[in-house]
Specification:
The chain contains 7 helices and 7 strands, in the order H-H-H-E-H-E-E-H-E-E-H-H-E-E. The strands form 2 sheets. It has a 5-stranded mixed β-sheet with strand order 2-4-5-7-6, with helices on one face. It has a two-stranded antiparallel sheet with strand order 1-3. The structure holds adenosine-5'-diphosphate.
């Protein structure tokens, strides 16, 4: 498909170049013709005035000059055709490459998403079919089944919301509305949202952020800190502490979310920001919900703010996620 489109674009570039080249070659040929005829006429006129018996003009030479000139033009156009053919092919490739990367990425996104959606849908379908075939299904069993299915549907809803959010961030035309914000304005709602989950695990949340001013998209940054705090809660054993701190340098504001959780192995470290990536420990632990989209969304939000996100971690000791947002927006 890429090669076919590239060839088509090459053909269009070539067509435009050749139409222009042939058009101007035609004009040049006609002008040279006119000039040669004018030269012949003037020469004939001068001979007639100067000599009583004027010598005859060698018109064949003039015709031959015209033919040779035409041949030269044909050769030049042939050269232009070959050179511009190669250049057009190269330029068409350069023009289409970013589109190819985007389409490949979108296709991968669609196939990854369908794969993730298929597993819970298949398990829902199977459990419903098995229960329907069970003639001795009691009301109690049916209620349990409905409850399980509802949990599964809720998880599917979270997945579809995350997919929608991620696809919105992948859209290059997606514009964020930036405004002046105070850091506490972002951290407080994120903490409030996470608190019930943290309380369930008896985790202590310590907010040591300073009330710094930054410039960004309010809801997006609130989402970003919620994702990081949610992960810190999800991947911490009970009764541990999660700390949020902030730092300001000359060029950036950094927010650090530190937990005393399970940590990330060096093997997983390079992949955790990839879509749908879950470390084996998270995948095998069915009590830790998630689809491996949170950090991919977090990364997109940070990139939209021209910032960076990094992590340091030690297995079974804890992790620190650092978000740096440049100050030149503030
Ligand atoms: P999810 O949490 O839904 O699996 P994320 O994209 O948020 O997806 O995280 C990707 C993976 O990175 C997780 O599956 C987990 O293995 C790892 N991870 C993220 N945050 C932490 C953390 N605070 N502590 C340990 N591991 C983490």
């Amino acid at each position: 498909m890429f090669t076919q489109t590239r060839l088509k674009l090459t053909a269009w570039y070539l067509l435009i170049i050749m139409v222009i080249s042939i058009f101007f070659s035609g004009i040049i040929y006609r002008m040279v013709n006119v000039e040669l005829n004018r030269f012949a006429n003037i020469q004939r006129f001068r001979f007639e005035r100067r000599f009583p018996t004027p010598p005859t003009l060698d018109l064949d030479l003039i015709e031959e000059t015209k033919r040779r000139f035409l041949l030269i033009l044909v050769f030049i156009n042939g050269g232009i055709l070959i050179i511009s053919g190669g250049l057009s092919f190269f330029l068409a490739g350069k023009t289409l490459y970013p589109i190819k990367v985007m389409i490949d990425d979108q296709n991968r996104f669609i196939s990854d998403s369908s794969h993730e959606l298929r597993t819970p849908i298949t398990s829902l379908k199977t459990s419903l079919e098995v229960s329907l075939r069970d003639k001795k299904l009691s009301v109690k069993d049916a209620k349990k089944l409905l409850r399980d299915n509802l949990n599964e549907v809720n998880r599917l809803q979270i997945l579809s919301d995350d997919l929608l959010q991620l696809s919105r961030y992948q859209d290059p035309n997606h514009q964020l509305v930036f405004q002046k914000l105070s850091l506490s304005e972002l951290i407080k709602p994120a903490i409030n949202q996470i608190k019930p989950l943290a309380n369930k695990k008896q985790l202590t949340l310590i907010d040591q952020t300073k009330n710094l001013t930054l410039y960004g998209a309010k809801n997006r940054l609130a989402d970003l800190f919620t994702i990081l705090l949610d992960n810190a809660v999800k991947y911490s054993p009970p009764q541990k502490t999660i700390t949020i701190t902030s730092r300001k340098t000359d060029s950036a504001i950094s927010v650090l979310v530190t937990d005393q959780g399970i940590g990330i192995s060096p093997k997983d470290m390079p992949h955790i920001f990839d879509r749908f990536y879950r470390a084996d420990s998270a995948r095998s632990n069915s009590r830790v919900p998630g689809y491996g989209l949170g950090l991919a969304i977090a990364k997109k939000i940070v990139e939209a703010h021209h910032g960076s996100i990094s992590v340091t971690s030690q297995l079974n000791q804890g992790s620190t996620f650092t978000v740096s947002l440049p100050l030149h927006f503030s």
